[in-house]
Every structure is written in C-alpha cells, then in structure tokens.
Specification:
about 300 residues; alpha/beta; Rossmann fold; 4 domains; five-stranded antiparallel sheet; about 30% strand; elongated
Length: about 300
C-alpha cells in the first residue's frame, strides 16, 4: 500500500486483471480488517494474476469494469498490430532469402559457383528450415518463461520451434486467431487477421483451462491445442511434432547392374517395340525392380521396367 486504506470488498484493478477483494492477509497469513499505507498485505479474490510491478488501483465496481474493458481492447489492438507487422516482416525476409537462393542457384548453373558450395550457404539452409509455431499459455509468468526456454532450442538446421505469442491465463479466442495467423499470408490491418485460411501453429495450454467455445473455434480453424500440467510431456510432444517436420530421406540400394549390348525390334499386337538385350554384370536384376538408364554417366531414364 502506498496511498489510501484497503478494506475487504474493495474492487481493484492491476493492468487488465480485476479483483473484488475477498480477504486481506498479513505476511504471516493472519486475517486483517484493513491495510494502511506502508502495510504489506496479501490480497485474495483476483480473477487472474496480475503481472509483477503492475500498479493496483481501487475504485467503484462500475469504474473498474469500464477501465478493465478499455485496457483489454487497447491491449488486443496493440498486440494484433504488432503481430501483423512481425508477420509481414518475416514474410518479406523469407521472400528476400528465396530471391537470393534463386540467384545463387542461377550462378551455380552458369558455372560461376561450384554446386557443392550452394549447399553450404547459410542463407539457403535458413530458407529450407521449417518451423513449428506455437502459442504458449500458462498459469503464471514463471511457468511460461520456463516452458518457452525449454522448447525454443528444440530442433536442428532443418526444423525448429518458433514461439509466436505467450500469455498468462486460460486460452482465449484471440490465441486461436494468433495461431491461425502464424502461417497465413501478409495482411495490412487488424481486422484482416480473421481472414487467414491455412495454419501450422499449435497452442500449448500449460496448467490452464480451455473454454468449450474456444475449443470449438480451434477445431473449426484447424488449430491443435495441447493441454498438460507436466512440462516434460509438453517438451516430448513438441519434439515429436518438430521431428515430423523433418524432410524424408531415401536410400537407394543397387541390387544389380547390366550393360545394353544390342537393341531389337519385336512386333506386339500390331505395333513394333524396342527391346534391349542386356548382359547382367553385377548382382541380380528383377522384374519388380526400378531401373535407371545411364548414357555417358548421365541419367536418361528412371522408373519402372
């Protein structure tokens, strides 16, 4: 307390968190009837926990509700505008990297740069990297910070995690829109956020609830929500999703080699087809195997028999 006297039943506002004071407790958790300036006090009755350092104001219930609604609208507007700007900036950066990649590939084809150096270019590797975009909601700010620190380093140069938004409290419809917008097209204003069609982001709800209406909105917008109160399970789920983003690798196993000795033409159902007479020089050549035909060390055909 810095000014005034606080009593039970007083409506309070801190940031966007409101409270109808239920009980006042001393540092030793003993009930007290009032708190004067300079008195440390524990206040119960908060609908959501305010952030550390927020100024606590007292007023009538009507004034507190109006002030809380105004602050929430201002916060949502500022958050949406900043997110739109960040998304557009990221899209522009990706576009510039793609243009640089095409330029490097063009130079490599023209012989101005060795093809092997193309794979070593960091900018090309960054373009190819895929991200699992997540929105993190937690019960307290400490849990959110711990969870973000644990998942942000998951991945490698091919796939990783990008945290697009964090917050304290239950999952809201704005979080669903944020996740949906994380992988959409650039927009120019706040009201365009709801026009995104595709999304690859997910919401991580750590020790918080998901209202039924919000869950229905997430299902409709194809935004997955993962809920848990155990941090290592969240980490395991995020790691599995990042692994699923990794590109598939294919191993080619040569089972046999043959050399074409002569071409023949045979008549099949009224038409002539060329048949290659081959000599197997290594391994076994089977009817069901795929083939690759080389001429002067260049692939001229690849497919089925």
């Amino acid at each position: 307390m810095t000014r005034g006297t606080l009593c039970p039943g007083t409506p309070l506002l801190a940031g966007t968190s409101s409270c109808s004071t239920r009980r006042l407790l001393s540092p030793s958790l003993q009930p007290i009837t009032s708190a004067a300036p300079g008195t440390p006090v524990l206040v119960t009755g908060w609908k959501s926990l305010p952030a550390a350092g927020e100024e606590v104001l007292a007023g009538s219930e009507v004034d507190i509700k109006k002030a809380c609604a105004n602050r929430e609208r201002k916060r949502d507007l500022e958050s949406a505008l900043s997110d739109v700007g960040a998304i557009n900036a990221a899209r522009q950066a990706d576009k510039e990297r793609e243009e640089k990649e095409r330029e490097i590939a063009y130079k490599a084809r023209r012989g101005n740069r060795a093809p092997t150096m193309l794979a070593e270019d960091n900018s090309v590797q960054e373009v190819k990297r895929k991200y699992l975009r997540i929105v993190v909601k937690g019960d307290v700010s400490g849990s959110v910070e711990a969870l973000v620190g644990a998942v942000k380093d998951i991945g490698n140069h091919l796939a990783g995690v990008r945290v697009v938004s964090t917050g304290v409290g239950n999952v809201a419809d704005s979080d669903v829109m944020m996740a949906k917008a994380a992988d959409g097209t650039p927009v120019s204003g706040f009201f365009c956020v709801h026009l995104f069609i595709s999304a690859s982001a997910m919401i991580v709800a750590f020790s918080v609830g998901v209202p039924r209406a919000v869950r229905a909105s997430a299902t409709q917008n194809h935004v997955p929500i993962y809920t848990s109160d155990i941090i290592y399970r969240v980490i395991d789920d995020v790691r599995d999703r990042v692994i699923s983003l990794l590109p598939c690798t294919y191993d080619i196993k040569v089972t046999g080699e043959a050399t074409v000795l002569q071409l023949f033409e045979i008549q099949i159902k009224g038409s002539y087809k060329k048949i290659a007479g081959c000599r197997v020089t290594h391994g076994i050549v089977q009817r069901s195997s795929s083939v690759r035909v080389l001429r002067e060390e260049k692939v001229v055909y690849e497919g089925e028999h």
